[in-house]
Amino acid sequence: MGHDPLGHDPSPVVLGEREGMTGGPGAVLAAFRSQRRRFLATVAAWEPSAWHAPTRCALWSAHDVVRHVRDVAALHVARLGGPPAPFEVKEPFSPPTSPLEWLTASAGQTPRETLRELRLLVEEEARLLEHRADVDPPRPVAGQLRRQVHWSVASAHTLWDAWMHERDILLAMGREPSCPEGEFRVALMYGLLAAAAPGGWEGRYVHTTVALEGSPDGVYEITHVDDSIRVTTVSPPNGAELSGPAGEVLDSLAGRGPLPREVFASSAAVVDRLTVLREVAT
C-alpha cells in the first residue's frame, strides 16, 4: 500500500528550504489540489451578496480577496514557466502596496469574470506543477522571502498565501475553515518556515520547538542546517519551548490577530525573531 501524500505518516517529516519536503513534491501538489478544489467550490456557491462581504483584510471585500488569490495564482503560473501575469509587477515587492497595485488591473471586474479566470489559472497551474514535479530540478530558485529555496518550497508559499486568505474570508463570515490533514501539514510547516526566514537574513536563525494544539503532528522543531531553515515534525511529540492553538499561531505569525508573544504567552527572544515576518509583511 503506497504512502498517501495527504494522509498521516508516523515517521518525522522535514520541510527544508533547499531540499523541499520529505518524499518529494507530492505532498505540496496534493495540498494544491485539495485547497484549489475546495476554494473554487466555495466561491462558486456564494450568493451575490457574499462577494461584497467584509473580510479580515480591512481594505478588501471577499471579491477583492478572491481577485488577490487569482493574481498570486497568475504569478505562480508565470514562475512555473507559463505566460506572464496580466499586470505590471514592480520590483522590489512591497507587501503593503504591491498587491493593491496588482488589483488595479482588474478594477470593475465582475465576480463571474474573476471566477472564470481563477479556474483557468488553476488548470494551468496543475499542469505546470505536474510537469515540474516530473523534472524536479535540483537547482534552488529565488524564494519570495529573499532566500534560495527548492522550487516546491517557493510553490508552497503560494499555497500558504491562498490558505491564509481562505481563512480571511471564511472566519469573517463566521465559518470555521477545515481541510485535509496533509494540506494542513504543508500550510502549517511552511508558515513556521516563513516565520523563521527573516531571522536568517542576518544569520540570526531560530532554534525552537513549537507545540500546536489541533495540528496533525503536535510538535514541530524549527532549526537550520548548512544555511537551510528546516521544520521537522517531532515524533513522538515531546515537550516544546513554545505552545499555542495551531490556527491562531499561524494567523499571528502572518500578521492577523494578537502578537505572537500573546498567542504563545511568552516574551522569549525566539518569539521576537518569529515576529519579524509579521513586521515586514504588514
In short:
With 282 residues, this protein is an alpha+beta fold. Helix content is 48%, strand content 11%. Helix 5 (151-172) packs across helix 6.
How would you sum up the global shape?
globular
Q: How many helix segments? A: 10
Number of strands: 8
Widest sheet: strand ordering: 2-1-7-6-5-8
Structure classification: alpha+beta
Main pleated sheet: 6 strands, mixed
Kindly provide the radius of gyration, computed on alpha-carbon positions and rounded to a whole number of angstroms: 18 Å
Quick check: average pLDDT?
94
Characteristics:
single chain, 282 residues, alpha+beta, two-stranded antiparallel ribbon, 8 strands, 11% strand
Write the layout of secondary structure elements.
Layout: E1 14-16, E2 20-21, H1 26-44, H2 62-79, H3 98-103, H4 111-135, E3 141-142, E4 148-149, H5 151-172, H6 181-200, E5 208-213, E6 219-225, E7 228-233, E8 242-245, H7 246-253, H8 260-263, H9 269-274, H10 276-281
Parallel strand pairs: 5-8
Antiparallel strand pairs: 1-2, 1-7, 3-4, 5-6, 6-7
What does this structure look like?
Helix content is 48%, strand content 11%. The protein has helices spanning 26-44, 62-79, 98-103, 111-135, 151-172, 181-200, 246-253, 260-263, 269-274, 276-281, and strands spanning 14-16, 20-21, 141-142, 148-149, 208-213, 219-225, 228-233, 242-245. The strands form two sheets. Strands 2-1-7-6-5-8 form a six-stranded mixed sheet. Strands 3-4 form a two-stranded antiparallel sheet. A hairpin with a 2-residue loop joins strand 6 and strand 7. The protein starts with 13 loop residues before the first strand and ends with a helix. Mean pLDDT is 94; it is low at 1-8.
